[in-house]
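Student:
Attend to each token:
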Amino acid sequence: MRFSLFVPTALVMVAWAPSLVAQVPQLLNYQGRVKVSGADFSGTGQFKFALVSGAGSTTYWSNDGTSSNGGQPAAAVALTVSGGLYSVLLGDATLPNMTALTPGVFSNSEVRLRVWFSDNVNGWQQLAPDQRVAAVGYALMADEVKDGAVTAAKLAEGAVTSSKLAAGAVTSTALASNAVIESLAAAGQGTVPSGAALVSVQPNAPGLLAAGYFSVGSLNSADSWTSITGGTARDRAASVWTGSEMLIWGDGSSGWRYNPTTNVWKAMSVVGQPAGRENPLAVWTGTEMIVWGGRNVSPAPPISSGGRYHPGTDTWTTMSLDGAPEGRFNSTAVWTGSEMLIWGGNNGTTVLGDGARYNPTIGTGGKWTAFTAATPPPARQLHTAVWTGTEMIIHGGQNPALGTYGDCYIFNPSGAGLWTLGAVATGSRSAHTAVWTGRAMLVFGGANLGAALPVAGGLVYTRSSNSWAAMSTAGIPTARTQHGAVWTGNEMIVWGGTSSAASFVYDATGGRYDPANNSWTALTNIGAPAARVNPNMVWSGSEMIIWGGSNGTGFDAGGRYRPGQTFYIYQRP
């Protein structure tokens, strides 16, 4: 299969003349033409873009910010191609997987656009040649500005920042009398007299040190819980974090949106929502929540349908059933940046060893593609899956016919998609939790098939070395299963679950694991939510939000957990 690229209009920089007052968008208009096997391509194509040096060995910018040394970005931009023709505004951050153009890109002597294309069938190919970026005539005029042309009225609000002023450019004689004091007073602040102290979250705050302050100590704020109540009770729902809201759907007549900033609950639209179910899978794409699978509450056959919820418009889009895998529960799903990968689970009578890929950008209802790679993992359910940025790693799980697993398998979706057997952990577990740190998978808790007590301890799987290591046991939470876990950016927090796989002794405790120091810190129990299994848990960027779950009865309440923080004290003589 051969792809070819033709660029009739090449690249046009959005330019300006000096007389313009409005701020100019930092965008690059690109129009191109692509052929597949000599024929103009039509449909939804997947594109990746990078602005590189003339030699192609240095990346100045890429559509998702992941390219380096001229390499291919991780995430793609979906574009409509008609008769081989397409166009895009590079740097238009309103497009999924498109980042704003990096300031200073065009200060380099030569900049070229590198493009990769996939027709969603034949994999990725870098198109050639790289396109050179050139300015249009009026852009060149920006190199000269007449004296007095830039007046105060032509400066955008906030345009002149401290970083744009030369050292010593603003002197005391240039400031109105008492200007600084009056500005501080208007903001409800005051001058800092000699001997007074300031507090910062930075252990070596460069601004304060440069201003003559020195560190005199630190103080620690305690971790804390804030209770929340709302929505309707449920114990087998799915949840995602959008960046501003927690979305919860399943095991109820409608879904819920919770905004922790305003502490407001809002019901999702039920128009066009999927059929009711419990234990659905859910992923967040950056603009939509995709839910799929699960099983009916009564009776309990698995479901092979789903839906996509867009919180911006409070609307549902039906997912295509063409090529969808058979219904299942106790399975896993991850979002790759362009596809949802589903694997394993139980169809009600059999544990499954297959999976499928769902691309929501192809057609109205999206497109399903079955996993076809040879040597897949043995069939299993109640396993975990994480996405590393390029691969899906599944670990553990169980099959009543074969027992509980301690292995891990790695799936690379690029090209035809391949499975690789990873290192086998010491011990096996299912119904556990796993999070990805950026370099390692952290595994905690779980149970062995038929055992009354959960598995104690946790494990760290480092992908680069394909090796397992045991977590420290000092201060580690008690053994548990059916708990929850989130990754904060530097710690894994686990909470809830049951300390008995047979009699359900519910737990309301938890712990924070720091992989950098291989250490555990217990969560405060003061104000913690009631003990439960299967809690919905997300990390908001500053808090862990817990809601729902069950202690035999579903909850419509939960809590927000804020980890303790260290503050550093600075003083100036």
Q: What stands out?
A: The mean pLDDT is 88. Residues 3-143 form a domain with the Immunoglobulin-like fold (CATH 2.60.40). Helices lie at 137-140, 179-186, 206-210. The chain has three domains: 3-143, 197-235+429-573, 236-371.
